Amino acid sequence: MRSPLSAAWIRRALPTRRRAVAAAAVVVLVAAAVAWVLRPQGPDVRAEAAMLTVRSGPAGDQPVDLDTTFYLPGDASADRKVPAVLLAHGFGGTKESVRADAEEFAGRGYAVLTWTARGFGRSGGQIHLDHPDYEVRDAQRLLDWLAARPEVRTDAAGDPAVGVVGGSYGGGLALLLAAQDQRVDAIVPMITWNDLSRAFLPESTGKEPVEGVFKKGWAGLFFGGGGNAGSGPAGLSGASAAQPEGAPASAGPPSPGPGGGPGTGPGRAPAGAADPSCGRFAADVCAAYLRIATTGRADQAAVDLLRRSSPAGVLDRISAPTLLVQGEADTLFPLSEADVNARGIAATGTPVRVAWFTGGHDGGEGPRTDSDRVRFLTAQWLDHYVKGAGSVPGDDFTWSRIAGFDALDRGLVATGYRTADYPGTGGTGRREVELAGPAQQVANPPAGNPAAISSVPFAGELSALLGGVAGDIPGQHARFESAPLAEAVDVAGAPTVDIRAASPTGEAVLFVKLYDVDPNGAATLPNGLVAPVRLTGLPAEIDAARPVTVTLPAIVRRVEAGHRLRVVVATSDQAYATPVEPVVHTVALGGGAVTLPTLAGEPIPTAATVWRWVLVGLLAAIAVGLVVVVAVVRRRHRRQDSSVHPAYADTPLAVRQLRKEYADGFVAVSNVDFEVHRGQVVGLLGPNGAGKTTTLRVLMGLTQPTAGEIYVFGHRLVPGSPVLSRIGALVEGPGFLPHLSGLENLKAYWRVTGRSVEDAHFDEALEIAGLGGSVHRKIKNYSHGMKQRLAIAQAMLGLPELLVLDEPTDGLDPPQIAEMRRVLQRYATDGRAVLVSSHLLAEVEQTCTHAVVVNKGRIVASGPVEEIVGESPSVLFDVTDPQAARTVLDRLAGVRVLPDGAGQLVVDTNGTARSEVVAELVRAGIGVDRVVPRRRLEDAFLALVGENSRGSGDR
Cα–chain-centroid distance for residue 337? Predict the structure, then answer.
């Protein structure tokens, strides 16, 4: 589909060429001026790399070397002090992971200190998982260092004006540092945790982490990333897991993606490590992991260790204003982690703002429109609370969801929303959707293999990406499904559902999932999120089982009308540890419905910076001006052409003395004059460059004629004329959105027309397309022929009274061409008409009732096909022995057997009497059953335009 502000549309809407040129010049000049004024300026930033030795540990006396880089704005000095940002990286990353973010913060006027956390890259020490005595105390010493820098502004002696920003591992550090050191002025923790034990040992019925289900996939990646965290500072062997110096980093600020995630490269443990399996992990962290990974269960000591590195116990100590950014596509730290952090910090009166975005550990930064919003919120937060510039950001809640596809850059677009009060994961409304399904038996596989796949760390919705190939295992899951929804539901929060379970062992580990199932049966598990539960004290029979409420992970999704909801209860999941003993459980619904939290808000723009708003405003003003011009022109055309020409009121198409001349003097069409009547299939013929396509373009309003008129059912045709709705067309090839299916493209096209869905004829159109089940596949997977068939079906939607097709058989195979011939002949019934342009003369001859032959921009013949063919210079002989007859005829002077007789004996007698030819065949003993004059449309065509004719050249 064309943009309504495309160049072609503007040309045909503006009244004169002079105005078009003037408007174009204005647009170019304004755009050039805006681009010059708002052109991106490379930040004047200088950087200083150094190994800093800090002292930390329980007593604060253990030295550790940290690999740091300090970024300063070009004009920062002792006389012009600037506020600071402490920028932390994600687990497995290094200071290089956040380099681009640091440079952009410095470009905004901040001194930025980045460092490689202990245990990673070139920094020394061991990994303690953001331990208050180690990683957090390291960061405190970095605050001391910042306070001593002459370029950094201070609030008091030894107290720098500083904000702390970090994602994932760095986000946890931001929270823990703000709780431990009151010098921090503001923090922006992203995609991070509240309780590390609950994150890795979740349980969705409310049990403590000691009863949780081990998230082995993510835990294994983290432990592997830390175990191969690169060489230590003393030149120990092993390649660094960090990005190399000078390597590209993600654009900032800030990167709300995984923040480095597990290790990005190979590495080895330091020489002399007590336990090679531990890598650079501290011994207590390593031991806890090995115990949990071996048994699949946590002990209280392991839970206590993980909680030691969790903000959960220190939220009441955080006084720094906090912007919490959490990802919706995150199977590691879901939205609920930020929810608990927000409530705990806000309880003490500290300013808190929450933003959800469509990325996360499984979704990266999300679409550009979404990451821009997060960057804007971060900059706004730091500018006010650290730099002291700008108004109070406010505490309204913002979130987003995927809204569609951007045809310009072929990426996804997210729409942001805001509401005044943060609702948490419970939403502001509730919607109950009834489910149905009997009690079902499900088998727990031995040793958890094979296992269902809901997600893979960093890979997101794997089951959706594979179209259901990977997903729930037959026999290992139960389904409960709703009826189609009568209206769309905007889900934003954590749904709940009650289930019952029975097991001969008295215990079951289950995984509860909520699918969105479209009318074609395709099921999507939003962001691969599942709710693991561990049920104990279960009866052996399902009738004795009590309902248990399961809180599913919070999601943001619009479930469209006509879709179904499906709750699946599975016994296995590749991402989690499950019991090794095989057993069969019975599961059933504990209630009749799934409860969905809903949320409504005000849409917000996603552009993050002032210059974008200015640019958008200027472009919008230009667009509005053009739309106004177009509206005036169209209205004037409609006023002028509201009458009906009485001579053509019942004629589908009348073209009168059409002429198209371009600005350079090129004449594509000089004088074309013809009519198409009801019941006719009219072929528009001519050599390349004869003017056929130009004629069709004028007919469809894609370009304006220099002279002449076109009438459709008596209405003079002008751009935007309402009578265009009575025409279906395929001109200049099909144009479809590649991310939509064939059927979705047809429906989208029909919605754009503004007509009622009852007026469409989807079933007939799809039968014409003959695509079968492929109509539900995405267009990007279509062949050229499939796109052509779908485009013809689109042209026939609504059964328009006049159908205009340009090369409809392009890309079709012979059987499909034959079927298209029958379709067009059937279509020109019930008072409808067809105009078809084609270079396949044999098909036109068999399909069309009438033909119009154009050469060099003029009509050289028109009328019924049989009249154009006329008398034949060739003869068709039906004989008993065609091969022997060929031999005889080849000996006759002047007589020529035509080579393209399509299996028949077609002879050019070249003036020799037919009776003489027949007599010669009979004398040779060849029976002659029939003699028929034969002339093809191709013969007539060549006679009219000449074999070497070249047209004037379509444009």
Answer: 27
Domain 45-419 has CATH 3.40.50.1100: no
pLDDT at 381: 96
Structure tokens at 159: 């107290």
Which pLDDT value is given to residue 368?
80
Place of tokens 């409304």: 429
| Mean pLDDT value of segment 766-776 | 79
Name the amino acid, one letter, at 933.
Answer: P
Checking phi first, is residue 57 left (phi over 0); if not, alpha (psi -120 to 50) or beta?
left
Nearest to 454 by CA among 513, 494, 520: 513
* Residue 103, φ and ψ in degrees, nearest 5: -65, -35
Which of residues 44 and 177 earns the better pLDDT score?
Answer: 177
Amino acid 529: pLDDT? 93
| Angle at the Cα of 502 from the Cα atoms of 500 and 508, rounded to 5 degrees | 95
User: Whole-angstrom Cα distance, residue 226 to residue 108?
Assistant: 33
- Please give the structure tokens belonging to residue 341: 């952090």
Nearest to 835 by CA among 683, 941, 694: 683
- The reply to whether CATH 3.30.70 applies to domain 872-934 is yes
Buried b / exposed e over 503-532, threshold 16 CB at 10 Å, is beeeebbbbbbbbbbeeeeebbbbbbbbbb
810 versus 571: the higher-pLDDT residue is: 571
Find the mean pLDDT for residues 409-431.
86
Residue 905: CB atoms within 10 A of its CB come to 19
Fold of 646-868: Rossmann fold (3.40.50)
Measured on CA atoms in the order 368, 374, 378, 379, is the torsion positive or negative?
Answer: positive
The pLDDT value given to residue 562 = 95
The most distant pair of C-alpha atoms in the chain lies apart, rounded to whole Å, by 125
> Is pLDDT at 552 greater than 60 in this prediction?
yes
What whole-number distance in Å separates Cα of residue 732 and Cα of residue 788?
Answer: 11
C-alpha atoms less than 13 angstroms from C-alpha of 689 in its C-beta half-sphere: 10
With cut-offs at 50, 70 and 90, classify the pLDDT of residue 448.
confident
**Which of helix, strand or coil describes residue 96?**
helix
DSSP, collapsed to helix, strand or coil, labels residue 11 as helix
Q: What is the DSSP string of 502-531?
A: E-TTSEEEEEEEEEEE-TTS-EE-GGG--E
Amino acid code (one letter) for 672: V
The whole-angstrom separation of Cα 618 and Cα 614 is: 6
- 3-class DSSP state for residue 541? coil
pLDDT-wise least confident of 70-79, 426-435, 789-798, 866-875: 866-875
By the 10 Å C-beta count (0-12 exposed, 13-18 middle, 19+ buried), 944 is classed as middle
What backbone torsions phi and psi does residue 682 show, to the nearest 5 degrees?
A: -105, 125
From its phi and psi, is residue 650 left (phi > 0), alpha (psi between -120 and 50) or beta?
Answer: alpha
pTM, rounded to two decimals: 0.61
pLDDT of residue 419: 93
Residues contacting 79, CB < 8 A, separation 6+: none
Are 292 and 157 within 8 A, CB to CB?
no
Q: Which residue has the higher pLDDT, 584 or 35?
A: 584
What pLDDT digit, counting tens, does each position of 104-132 carry? 999 999 999 999 999 999 999 999 999 99
Instruction: Output the CA angle 468-597-513, nearest 5 degrees.
Output: 25
Q: Residue 851 phi/psi, 5° resolution? A: -140, 150
CA angle 520, 526, 531 (to 5 degrees): 120
Helix, strand or coil for residue 265? coil
User: According to CATH, what is the number of the domain 426-601?
Assistant: 2.60.120.260
Q: Nearest Cα to 458, choosing from 297, 562, 317, 327?
A: 327
Decide: helix, strand or coil at residue 89: coil
Minimum mean pLDDT range among 38-42, 554-558, 597-601, 647-651: 38-42
- Provide the token pair at 243: 């990005």
pLDDT > 70 in the chain, percent? 80
